[in-house]
Design goal:
165 residues; alpha+beta; 5-stranded antiparallel beta sheet; 6 helices
């Protein structure tokens, strides 16, 4: 009888832990505006927005340097989460220019777009403005780094606008 109680207690504990992990895997909710970010809820679905964003990055002359997200890996583990993808974007001429101004600032490259899937099937496009990302390095990089950051702000806005047309 004691072995049965111990085995039952262990099974209940394991089930409770699994339920907690599954509940913990639930998404925190949609992205909301925050300082230094652009957040745009779209009427596009997640795969459609990703495809359009990739095309817009190329069309605006930038490179897709990195791409990562937990959705597919979670699915392979039997966990369903909404679509979630980070796309690192940059261009070599900006890399060379910024590196001349601040070695430390290059840790921020590539600068990222973030695509998330909403509960209604639409997707949200978000990014930290490059001027926000590069702000901690302005003392070192000066006015020329500020100009490069503003140019990148305009380029990222143009990429987003093209993706959302």
């Amino acid at each position: 009888m004691t072995r049965w109680l111990i085995a039952t207690a262990r099974a209940l504990l394991a089930a409770g832990m699994m339920a907690g992990m599954v509940a913990g895997a639930a998404p925190a909710g949609p992205l909301t505006p925050r300082p230094g970010w652009e957040v745009i809820a779209t009427g596009l679905d997640y795969p459609g927005l990703l495809a359009r964003l990739r095309g817009a990055i190329r069309a605006e002359g930038f490179g897709l340097v990195t791409e990562a997200g937990p959705t597919e890996a979670a699915r392979s583990r039997g966990i369903a989460i909404p679509g979630n993808r980070v796309l690192g974007v940059f261009r070599n001429d900006y890399a060379v220019r910024i590196l001349r101004l601040s070695t430390a600032a290059m840790i921020e490259a590539p600068i990222r777009f973030y695509v998330t899937e909403n509960p209604d099937g639409t997707a949200t496009l978000a990014w930290k403005r490059p001027s926000h990302v590069l702000a901690p390095y302005l003392d070192e990089g000066g006015a020329e780094l500020a100009r490069a950051a503003e140019e990148l702000d305009a380029a990222f806005a143009a990429i987003a606008a093209r993706a959302l047309r």
